[in-house]
């Protein structure tokens, strides 16, 4: 390092981000110490201040380091801090910050919350943010934010929220292109109106009965977990869609008249059949389809899928390249009447290349074997079929017989078919 020009040394040092390493630089030489004001990023890990001496506090140490930098563009704080500390840091560097990531650690009963000033409210002192990531957030009351005109990425992980608080926060971020709300609870009705939004990932805790309405005409990717009623209109750009509900039911989906999806994933214990059929009809041009819905039924009764005609299904999805299908939907394709038209030699599955089938029951083994044989026969471009035997429980010999039939089929199609 001594042989390098001073400018090169300072350029290299300016890329150090860990606060502990930055502090060490001040002890090496005057040149290294003088380079600290040129740093652009400071990162404070979770356990950085576990062994502080008397009189030292994380707030004070972070404040000293933040104030020693001329123009701090990125600040990441995972260690504990107070609202007073955050207010002090942003007073020095708020107008320069572009990226801010904070571990808030204030998910507590709001009646006992004594965090004054509010950590959330303090963030308004950084009006030029382009990316904001918050972990462990309590958002009971609307944050006192002015508009973040430049904010494009907002990520909140692990939060307790009220509907009005979230709506107010989103209104303050009109330029968002990427939104992620992960592990959030307390919400009942979510309204998102962001004209520039392109990617949206939503994961809500609770009983899974949230309602969601999105108005974002530029939306390209949407992932939703924990909603029962979903309404997303005017989405000509939507290509990747995932809808899951592991705790509740999916009652209704409304995406307008047509979707140009390339990838669709449907997951959950129970979907109303109208929601399933609506999505399959809308996604007629889908290339990658993942279905893991165990039951249908409108209310508490868990019902099997109704009969689905195999020929009609693949004729309605001619661009399908990969298909990952779990027990209930596969069983629906295995009804006797579903295969009658397969004797027609003109039927072909034109594009399917990869197929993954998960089987959990030996019931209707003859029909299921017939479906497997038909898929191998009519999917002319099929390169890989994987049959997963998952938790198949049966005291009857039919389970063993069924497995032997699948093994026989694999032996006859060893280049294409595999068993897991």
From TrEMBL:
SUPFAM superfamilies named in the record: F-box domain, RNI-like
Highest taxon above the source species: Eukaryota
The protein, known as: F-box protein
Organism: Cinchona calisaya
């Amino acid at each position: 390092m001594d042989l390098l020009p001073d400018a090169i040394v300072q350029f290299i040092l300016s890329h150090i981000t860990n606060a502990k390493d930055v502090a060490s630089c001040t002890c090496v030489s005057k040149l290294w110490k003088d380079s600290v004001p040129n740093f652009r990023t400071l990162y404070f890990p979770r356990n950085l201040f576990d062994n502080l001496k008397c009189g030292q506090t994380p707030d004070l140490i972070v404040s000293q380091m933040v104030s020693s930098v001329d123009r701090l563009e990125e600040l990441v704080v995972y260690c504990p801090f107070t609202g007073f500390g955050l207010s002090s840091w942003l007073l020095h560097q708020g107008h320069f910050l572009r990226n801010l990531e904070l571990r808030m650690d204030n998910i507590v009963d709001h009646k006992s919350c004594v965090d004054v000033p509010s950590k959330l409210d303090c963030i308004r002192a950084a009006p030029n943010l382009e990316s904001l990531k918050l972990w462990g957030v309590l958002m009971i009351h609307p944050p006192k934010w002015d508009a973040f005109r430049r904010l494009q990425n907002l990520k909140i992980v692990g939060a307790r929220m009220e509907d009005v608080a979230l709506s107010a926060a989103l209104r303050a971020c009109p330029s968002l292109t990427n939104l992620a709300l992960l592990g959030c609870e307390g919400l009942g009705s979510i309204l998102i109106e962001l004209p520039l939004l392109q990617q949206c990932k939503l994961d809500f805790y609770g009983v899974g009965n949230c309602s969601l309405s999105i108005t974002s005409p530029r939306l390209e990717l949407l992932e939703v977990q924990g909603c029962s009623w979903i309404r997303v209109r005017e989405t000509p750009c939507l290509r990747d869609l995932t809808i899951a509900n592991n705790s509740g039911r999916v009652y209704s989906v409304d995406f307008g008249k047509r979707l140009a999806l390339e990838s669709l994933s449907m997951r959950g214990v129970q979907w109303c059949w109208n929601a399933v059929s609506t999505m399959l009809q809308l996604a007629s041009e889908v290339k990658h389809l993942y279905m893991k819905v165990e039951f249908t039924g409108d209310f508490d009764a868990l019902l099997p899928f109704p009969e689905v005609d195999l020929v009609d299904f693949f004729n309605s999805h001619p661009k399908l390249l990969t298909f990952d299908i779990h027990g209930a939907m596969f069983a629906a394709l295995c009804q006797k009447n579903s295969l009658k038209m397969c004797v027609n030699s003109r039927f072909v599955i034109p594009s399917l290349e990869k197929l993954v089938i998960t089987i959990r029951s030996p019931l209707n083994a003859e029909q299921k074997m017939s479906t497997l044989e038909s898929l191998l026969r009519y999917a002319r471009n099929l390169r890989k079929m994987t049959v997963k035997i998952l938790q198949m429980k049966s005291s009857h010999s039919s389970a063993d017989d069924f497995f032997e039939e699948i093994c026989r089929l694999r032996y006859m199609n060893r280049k294409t078919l595999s068993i897991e």
